[in-house]
Amino acid sequence: MRPQIVSFGDSITQQSFSSAGWGAALTDTYGGKVDILLRGYGGYTSRLALFLLQYLSSLGSKKPPAATTVFFGANDAGRTSERQHVPVEEYKDNLRRIVHHLKECSSTMLVVLITPPAVDEEGRMQYAKSVYGEKAME
Length: 138
What we know:
Elements (H helix, E strand, L loop, with lengths): L3 E6 L1 H4 L7 H9 L4 E6 L5 H7 L14 E5 L16 H18 L4 E5 L6 H12 L6
Parallel strand pairs: 1-2, 1-3, 3-4
Helix pairs in contact: 3-4
């Protein structure tokens, strides 16, 4: 049985195997050497990911994956008025809990955390105003 890499995350992970996606690059690099398992869930946050940990089939196998990528945060970072929003401190704690769970499955498993880049709210607003004028505020 070949070693496995599990890609666990939200829709960014789910779509990562599309043309020029980071999952496709992972396959190009490791194809034929490891089995890559996609576990991407559109709309999920780090909070919801905690409930999925027990259902990741490969993690319950006799031989745990050699590595797992964990990519959550885009949905967590939604505006505080949005139902998906997860406060930063809870997000940090959720990632710690996910890593702890994975390390309990295998102390030798490589866990790679991938997080979305920081957002420049001021820069985004300036751009929106340049394109949409004052309607960007609506």
